[in-house]
Structure formats: C-alpha cells, structure tokens
Amino acid sequence: MKVYSYSEARQRLADVLNNARNEEVIIKRRGGEIFSILFRKSKKSPFDVSGIDTKASTKDILTAVRESRDRF
After folding, report:
1. In this structure, is the dihedral angle defined by the CA atoms of residues 10, 22, 1 and 43, taken in order, positive or negative?
2. Which residue among 24, 27, 32, 56 is least crowded, i.e. fewest CB within 10 A of its CB?
3. For 72, which DSSP code?
4. Does the pLDDT value for residue 15 go beyond 90?
C-alpha cells in the first residue's frame, strides 16, 4: 500500500493512478481525512454496444451507402 499526502498526490496524479493498478493507494489530507484509490478493470469493451431495431434491410443500407458515395 502506497500513501501520499494530498499535495503530493495532486502533483503526481499520473504516478498515483499507475500505482493504483498494482496496489491500494491512500491519500491523506491535512484535516485527517483518508481516501483510498483502487483500480477497477472495466467489465466490458467500449465497443460492446447494443444494436438497434430497424425495418431497413441489408439491401436498403447498402443502397444508401452507395448513393452517399456517388454524390461526391
């Protein structure tokens, strides 16, 4: 566990976050408050998006793409 003062953590935020990937990081404020930073890996890919329901067929979509390319 790595411990930083608030001022040090603010100045070295990138280092603090990199350390949090491997171990818990504690930040202490002057008033006695203590904060813990833990790394959490995202459970799904940012490219994992839900589809939409549409009545357009593959043929309709390809036609629209061809028409948009022909305009230029």
Report:
1. positive
2. 32
3. -
4. yes
pTM for the full predicted model: 0.56
Indicate the CATH number of 1-40 among 3.20.20.20, 3.40.50.2000, 3.40.1620.10, 3.30.1330.60.
3.40.1620.10
* DSSP-assigned letters across all residues of 26-66: EEE-TTS-EEEE-----SS-TT-------S--HHHHHHHHH
pLDDT per residue as tens digits for the range 27-68? 999 999 999 998 988 788 888 888 888 899 999 999 999 999
Residue of 56, 57, 10 lying closest to 37 (CA atoms): 10
What element of type H or E holds 5?
A: strand 2-5
